[in-house]
Amino acid sequence: MSQKELVFRIGGAAGDGSASTAESLAKVCTRSGLYVFTYTSYQSVIRGGHSWVQVRAAEEPVLSQGERPQVLICLNQPTADIHAPQVRENGAIIYDSDTIKLDGLRLAEGVRKIGFPLGRLAREFSNNALMKNTVALGAAVRLFDMDLAVVESAFATVWGDKKREIVDANVKAAAAGYKYVEENGGSLNLGLRHSGKARLLITGNQAIALGALAAGCKFLAQYPMTPASSIMHWMADHAPKHGVVVKQVEDELAAINMAIGAGFAGVRSMTATSGGGFSLMVEGIGQGGMVEAPVVAVLAQRAGPSTGLPTKTEQGDLNLALGAGQGDWPRAILAPRNTDECFRLTAEAFNLAEVYQTPVIVMSDLYLSEGYRTVEGFDFNVPIIRGLLAADGGTAKDKYLRYKITESGVSPRALPGQPGFQFDAGTDEHDEKGELISDVLAGIPEWVEIRKQMMDKRMRKLDGLRRDTKGPELWGPEKADITLISWGSTQGPLREAILDLQEADGLPVNSLEYAYLFPFHADETTAALKRAKRTMSVEGNFTGQFSRLLTAETGIRPDHFFGKYDGEPFYPSEIAAKVREVLG
Amino acid sequence: MSQKELVFRIGGAAGDGSASTAESLAKVCTRSGLYVFTYTSYQSVIRGGHSWVQVRAAEEPVLSQGERPQVLICLNQPTADIHAPQVRENGAIIYDSDTIKLDGLRLAEGVRKIGFPLGRLAREFSNNALMKNTVALGAAVRLFDMDLAVVESAFATVWGDKKREIVDANVKAAAAGYKYVEENGGSLNLGLRHSGKARLLITGNQAIALGALAAGCKFLAQYPMTPASSIMHWMADHAPKHGVVVKQVEDELAAINMAIGAGFAGVRSMTATSGGGFSLMVEGIGQGGMVEAPVVAVLAQRAGPSTGLPTKTEQGDLNLALGAGQGDWPRAILAPRNTDECFRLTAEAFNLAEVYQTPVIVMSDLYLSEGYRTVEGFDFNVPIIRGLLAADGGTAKDKYLRYKITESGVSPRALPGQPGFQFDAGTDEHDEKGELISDVLAGIPEWVEIRKQMMDKRMRKLDGLRRDTKGPELWGPEKADITLISWGSTQGPLREAILDLQEADGLPVNSLEYAYLFPFHADETTAALKRAKRTMSVEGNFTGQFSRLLTAETGIRPDHFFGKYDGEPFYPSEIAAKVREVLG
Amino acid sequence: MSDGKTIELQEYKSEIKPTWCPGCGDFAVLSGLQKALQVLQIEPWNIVIVSGIGCSSNIPHFLSSYGFHSIHGRAVPVASGIKLANSDLTVIAAGGDGDGYGIGVGHFIHAMRRNLDITYIVMDNQIYGLTTGQASPTSEKGMVTKSTPEGVIENPVNPLTLALASGATYIARGFSGDAKGLGDLFARGIKHKGFSLIDVLSPCVTYNKINTYDWFRQRVYSLEKEGHNPSDYLAAVARADEWPNLDQKRDRIGLGVFYERNDIPTYEDLEPALKKGPLVRQPLGLANPEELLEEFR
Amino acid sequence: MSDGKTIELQEYKSEIKPTWCPGCGDFAVLSGLQKALQVLQIEPWNIVIVSGIGCSSNIPHFLSSYGFHSIHGRAVPVASGIKLANSDLTVIAAGGDGDGYGIGVGHFIHAMRRNLDITYIVMDNQIYGLTTGQASPTSEKGMVTKSTPEGVIENPVNPLTLALASGATYIARGFSGDAKGLGDLFARGIKHKGFSLIDVLSPCVTYNKINTYDWFRQRVYSLEKEGHNPSDYLAAVARADEWPNLDQKRDRIGLGVFYERNDIPTYEDLEPALKKGPLVRQPLGLANPEELLEEFR
Ligand SMILES: Cc1ncc(C[n+]2csc(CCOP(=O)(O)OP(=O)(O)O)c2C)c(N)n1
Ligand SMILES: Cc1ncc(C[n+]2csc(CCOP(=O)(O)OP(=O)(O)O)c2C)c(N)n1
Ligand code: SF4
Ligand code: SF4
Ligand SMILES: [Mg+2]
Ligand SMILES: [Mg+2]
Questions:
Q1: What predicted TM-score, i.e. pTM, was given to this entire model?
Q2: Which B residues, 127 through 186, put their C-beta within 8 Å of a C-beta on chain C?
Q3: Ligand with smallest separation from the Cα of A46
Q4: At CA D241, angle to CA D239 and CA D246, rounded to 5?
């Protein structure tokens, strides 16, 4: 895309502090009025290995991590070896000239080698080994023409007033780097305006947690698992203040069962995990469908199979979510396409869960959950719709039927503690009262019929869930040479690819994007795809799990499939290339 | 169907002994040279409730439990109330005239009420309360024109020589019932020939266990769950003699993980469960796909969702099997259509698991797993194909690669204890040697490529699995007005419905039957369905889980769907009626 | 109790007739529990009984209270979620030995170390009843069952030493042959602030032909009568180790309270979010949401 | 050993350099284990190390033996399956406190009561290392972690009293600050016939700033030197209860063998199908299949 942007990359070993330096830069960009998008590539190790972060920022919204960087900070030699050749023409590489060599690396034209004794300089301000990152950061800030004062304010927020000396030392270190560049070539002259409204810089997981709080979530039971853990961390930090119980429990079996218990007892409750933990929740979540307890389960995907690549992204757990639990039960699956939707769809999930009294799964992935993105703000005016409660009146105590067969499939819900509405919630098939059919009634003709009615009742909720959720969004030109089908976090890179194809090739391409996966919106899909000239589904897995769902529901098979399963996020360029290949 | 048959039903409370009496009768029928099919309707309770068994037998193979009985034994009043009206014209009801009344029940024409003091008579031979069942059994035997000597031989096998007095008492009791009918109206004159070759009478679970033994299974780890428990019971009884370790373990998590450990260590190993337990195996089984360990998992389905109807049948766990585990990994899913295939496909599953070094799921259901059926015999000449082993030579020790990238996706497997081939099996993504990619290499460009290659390698196994398994079987006339699509145990009732539609209505109907569900045979399916005039899929669940798979794989949507989810098995008559409705 | 009227025993009984086999030990547990609740005058609607799956786990249906008949092995986490959501409720988890000490033993251990104010009643029949008689984790070595035709070769779980090792603050053993004693142990356990385990020897008359009422009657004795001091941890361990144990000694089986301490705060006491009362009563939504956004600017 | 040649320590080392943080306690466990295996002269190809997921669970990659780096919490059942399939192998399960006492505690308990001849080494750092520092089941009350910013409010699991309650027949505690002692405890545990638990205090230098080498050094003492008798069950319980415990006493932490008994048969001894030797060596297929069909006629 032709819009002006800055792309910054920093790399080193785990523990070298790439992430926090990049975060500072991202904050500085945000406070400078830019839109920001970050991607962190790291590994499942605490020290060593190779990790790097990319920060991309521009005056207009940015939807992906971008491609080649203009500025690279190398915290160790492997970073130079791997990343230096990728730095763009007329870009710059910042490195400690005492420890790192760029000799022999093939650099693009005009790349400035900004090597100076970072480490030695840094030791003037602190004996913290990570201080050299701050010197490098200062250098980058100068290259990008940003303001040292903003850097200072960012540091002040990160460490707070209580750690004033740390802030001061860092500010001095940054100034030293800044000065070095000032005196050695100055700015890259990227021409971005650094002013304007500071927006919010937030990760998908933080937005999910905020959305939950806004929706009145009172209980989170979770077991740590990348990339879902930071939901728990953030919630735990804010829990006591907002009257939320946040529990790290013994395993994911406990997490889902506790969350369902809490939902049954009347609070909005949630759990969050990744595919491995969700695998352990399979039986429990099906239970929620049967006892008709509301619960929200966040499934933040990472690359499988099995333990797989714990720090890498994938959209490979859709089959898992679709198949979770025995038999058929009504579930909803939402997949936020971006950080903003992380907030909105999570909040919505709580309403759907309570209105339909059934588990709702919110699927994100490492790319979306952990990346920092800019959002304009959040609308905290989230409606809280608690659904049909026996307490709201209209429900007689004496013949209270917890599982009353209704047209919507939804029955009035009593909460423990409410006098006169005592009932049993059972995972065995039960009658309208909640009493067992399985133990002495199963197989007796009239009860066979009631069993069938209970199934029908529960499954009717899918109609309401479909009605209350939206069909896919068609984005881009009405008339297009190809329609790209995507779900969840693929939205960003895909939209950028579309813009690029339009701009660079004059190719009209649009996308059909799904945020509400299940119940599937078959009619809207069929209508939209009928108008499509050609279709390609783009998803982050091997088998095309979502395409298969789409075909199962509509009989339509996308003409092409572009699946990515190497653990890396989509890059706009590769989507565009694939489109060119397919159309060419 | 017009073939001569006998249909017998016995009902009472749980603990009243319906099942063992029916089993005796089934054995007597078998030894009388008939083909037998039984269905037991029971409840999740140990005493009380209402359970009944139907035994159907004929000179030609029978494929379903049949419909209305000719002879009914009532062990309690509710049985009379529920079942007596269903007895066929000119049939008979046997009951204890001291305790049961048929007054006021609407019986079919010509039904004989054979009420006599069963209990009092029985007490002459034993004070075991269940002895009255034997008296009734004797009466039924007389009605069916079978031989008391066969009854005696059946008793002798059941109790063995050591319990001669029990056998004698029972023989006397049966003779008393026999005599009573002899003197009060005699036979029903059904006209079946009771002679000829005695075949085998066996349940699906027993056939699965036998198939496992025949294939060299050495290890079974299981946790009890209806309707899979009897696999463990039968195996445990025969284990020590055949050098098989059978372990009831603490839960299904342990079961799958132990079985995978044993498979990794070099023995053919298996686990078995129902949907609830399988839900707990989801993470473990995906692990098998990643470390490439062979294991066979039997999933005997029962009616869900959740605990559901533990003693009732359903085909509702296909989505669960298809979605089990994170990400994409190669799995095979087989679904025996009948008892004979329970044996053959289980044995085959062990070969597929070892040849492709991946978990294989064998799906049955309560209907197939627990029902007694006639089989002609088993071919124990099961080939045992252990797949590519490093020990077989051709694999050099010094650069041994456990996960060597090959065209087939299969790599030479070393077993612990083999000198020089030490390697690590890991659930994290790994390289050809088995060493971690996840911890310090993930995300580095060349290793991103290797990760992709490892995925490709594993997933290539699906091609081999598809090649080594069979496409659907088209059964019935080439040209048909409608093609019925089915999988697994639905075969029997469906074939009977087809025969009936041909005979009674002259309607040509055929069926496309699947025993090998995954990897799916799309080409054969498309070819077969292209020739179909009209299609209807018939399966035992709410949403048409298999039809959805078929559509996802081929884009073809069956024209009609007949799903059953009330816990009861299919009856040929209801399938035929549905076909008439659809075609009419 | 709220309106000063005494709640009658009848009010704790549901319309559903228990479906257990005649003679099943679980009947005594049911009536003991009803009696305890009545003695404590806890309103039926303020009680939630949570069970797993098994014969014993059908108990919620036979009591008039709120009930959650959960999945196999998960009664304790479901109960924990309920208690944390509404700490005003009296939460009782109940189920079988397979449910609690087999598939559910992990949750059992972690619940005890949390010391949530929950009462856990295990109807320990040393067999899997509902699945028609397989070995359970408390089946004794050598026992022949459907799954162990050659006899069990595991050493049995000892629920009491396990509880003593895991921080439960009320640990007792009852016997279905002593209905009165059961009621007392339940009442004391429910009153106890913190996690209470009551392991009940509750014979399965259908599938366990070894550990029968008679078998127990020949072996049980009252801890109290022998002067056991329930605040003495090591004495409790020694009593608990009398049966079952690695040596397969089985001549003395103590009944009563093995261990109790009341000085350990409950989980609810320590949980900061509950300082303002039960979660169900706290307002939904955010009072001052914009404040939360500061950190993202 | 088979060919009479001594196996050198080097042969137990793999080409992979451990990826643990410098100073991590797990290094001492690795070298202690290598030393123990060398002392016992067990051929690398006859060893299988099975782990779960966690920093500590990466250990199989650093040893030259067969390895199975399983899923989180399942090392023990995987190891059990391997041992039952090939009882000639030396099977060692290894992993973290989260893996073994958190998510995996159910398997841990059941494995102990089985008394399979497996050695289980838990690298207990009282924290979740690999997931960057959340509370673990052995984190002490009050500890501030990423998941417990207000401090842990659970009582910690005591692995030793748990093992004593569950029938493990060799129960020991080691400390990464005492490499020599570790090697000895491992060797003795591997030699022991039956389930051996060695809980190793293995400091996480990155995320646990409380339970450091120094912290332990101020508290540990040798059981042997104080004359502890490892065959005395109640004495072992008393020693194990010194730390951690409900009273949060933390001044004395015993190292060494708490309990050992050698008169309890192993699971493999009792399993009838293993009488003829390891399963892997038994012939496949059926000798006389028709015999099996008799019951179906
Ligand atoms: C995940 C799962 N596995 C297995 C079962 C089958 N199952 C139901 S009850 C039960 C055991 C019952 O034993 P126990 O808990 O001792 O209760 P009891 O019937 O003896 O009272 C089992 C294994 C199940 N429902 N769910
Ligand atoms: C089912 C599942 N849940 C969660 C995780 C994430 N996870 C990986 S390691 C770990 C805990 C590690 O702690 P510990 O076992 O103590 O090992 P350490 O890293 O401290 O050595 C967790 C929660 C996982 N891999 N699988
Ligand atoms: S089977 Fe046993 S536990 Fe179950 S109800 Fe009958 S006696 Fe009770
Ligand atoms: S994080 Fe802790 S446990 Fe993990 S390697 Fe580093 S020091 Fe060891
Ligand atoms: Mg039991
Ligand atoms: Mg740890």
A1: 0.98
A2: none
A3: 4
A4: 160
